[in-house]
Amino acid sequence: MELPNHDVLIVDVQRSPPPLAIYGQAPDKLPQSNTRINPQQTGNNGSNRLEDFADYTPGVQLGRNQAGIGSDVYLRGYPLNGNMQLDGLLDVQGFYLRDPATLESIEISKGLNSVLFGSGSPGGTLNYVSKQPYFSPQRSGQFTAGSPDSLHTVLDVNQPFAQTNWAGRLLMVGQQGETGRANVGDDRFTFLPSLLWQTAQQSLLLELEHGWQNREYDFDNVFYQGKPIYNVSYVDPRSYAQRRMNRVSGTYTRDWGNGWETLLQANQIDAKRDERWIGFAYLPASGTALPGYYRDAQYAQTQQALRAELSRHYNHGMNQHHTRLGVSGHSVEIDLKRQFRTGLFSLDLFNPTFDFPLPDADKLTKREAVTLRKERAVYWQHHAEIGDRWGIHAGVRNSQYQADYASPTLAFQETDAADTSTALGLTWQATPHWQAFASRNESFAPNIGMDKNEQFLAPLQGVQHEIGVRHQHETRQGKPLNSNLSVYRIDQENVTTRDPSEPGALMLTGKTRSQGVEANVSIPVSKKLTVNTAYNYSDARITANNDGNTGNHLHNIPRHSGSLTLDYTPNARTHLTLGAVKVGKRPGDDANSFDVPAYTRLDAGATWQLNRNTTLKAGVRNLLNEDYVAASEGVDFIVQGRKRTVTLGLEVDF
């Protein structure tokens, strides 16, 4: 058992690690830092959330996506804003939290390579890899109970069909759980059948997914008089959040011979949300009465995504080449109806009560709007292995991005932008055990709106430069010693700022910079004990701005953070893990008006293989039950880390 802290590129004990899904290359062939995480390991320390891998991965921090809707992830100082990928295509946006049991792995690419991923955060990309059918029968069931009260069940059935090229897999996952915060639950259910047809030349994967979730909007906590307010929930028990998602996806591959291959991938996602938020609006400048906030909202969301690619593997002398030419695109349409009002009631900062009547409909402000986001692109990427030592990566992408807004009273185009991004990287295998790499990746993200001259704003532009070394060798213990060290710098420009010459207008004078060092070492001390260490130094700042924040540190990013795990295997049937996370103090907002205190957290886990088919698992997260801040998005958006979480589970193969 291992906590998810393997942030080195050579993450598997296997001699030849499988390729990362979107890159099509093994991690140790890539000229930038990547991480592959086994999501099943997130439960080994008492967690039932994918986002809890963040603490054990250098350069990754937990954040808050759209305040209380769901968790977000920061990569190298920049939030993803919920912009996750699923099998290389855009995942459902805004609210759906995937269950770890439905995923084969989580792939994190640090520093966005827009050539393959398109628009997004300059900090990188997170890609979920879904579980798929394979040609070996396997059936398993899991049942896990925990505290705070939770029940989690998994049924996973994989079956090849006799004397055919077909295999099928059925995943059914359910959870009824509490988060440890009053009136905020986390109930969910996933039904995920899939079919795979595969021959020597072709394959076709078909997936259907139905997901349901009830997770109330969490208004989080506040920072008051120099310290966080812990263990207080501002969520009214009459709140609710019903979310449903249906996905249909297909992937077709064809080997045409002589190294030529084609890939066609598409998905359609339909999602709905019916939510009632009852909590507070903001922290006032004085007093302990929080202005109340009420909102009813209904969302209808439709997404389509497509990728079509032609590639070729070929040799030229002793050199190996892989060229990819493709087109990709996606669209996201959201129809939002909401009724809201601020200030009809108030909540006490320290002891909120919810005995007030709900507001009448005629007192609410009503809004309706439809937003449409479209992105389409053509890209080219080439990878060359020059002899046994050198690897070269190069790519270019041209993207078109459009955004439209419509309401019952007006309609307009929010942006119409284009961008050309490039990527270049180099690897050098200095010895059989040492490798150096360097890369330069460009990224972009659209800016919504116009300047005072009614011209669309140019996209955000990011550039990452990274250099690093990797090391791996076998030890006397029969396990590899892995290490990784990288130094990076990300510069972002075209950040929107206020135009001082015209109130309400925007201009592109803002700039940010994130630079740092990441290190990770996995040391097999003996055949029974492995020590894993990770460290991150980050200096993330606002380098240009016209609101007085120039020179300030970006919020939520600690300068120092690290982790240590001890993985002990006393015998073939037993695995024990003890983990420690240390996160330094962080600015709570971009104005640097307050600092979030540092924290240290201990986690533990164990598995016992009772017999050939039965495994018992136990985990404890936040062993000492410490109060700490997991993330900060401002003085009135302080995300408290979960209190002690204990789980006990049984997994049976049948």
Characterise this structure.
This protein has about 650 residues and is mostly beta strands. Helices cover about 0% and strands about 60% of the residues. It has 1 helix and 36 strands. Strand 3 and strand 4 form a beta hairpin. The longest helix is centred in the first third of the chain and has 4 residues. The protein is globular. The protein starts with about 35 loop residues before the first strand and ends with a strand. The N terminus is likely disordered.
Tell me, briefly, the overall form: globular
Q: How large is the radius of gyration?
A: 25 Å
Q: How many extended strands?
A: 36
Strand content: over 45%
Instruction: Indicate the mean pLDDT.
Output: 91
Helix and strand composition category? mainly beta
Distance between the termini: 22 Å
Figure out the total of helices.
Answer: 1
Low-confidence stretches: 1-15
Q: Major sheet: size, sense and barrel closure?
A: 22 strands, antiparallel, barrel
Helix content: under 10%
Tag the structure with descriptive keywords.
single chain, 654 residues, mainly beta, 22-stranded antiparallel β-barrel, five-stranded mixed sheet, 1% helix, globular, disordered N terminus
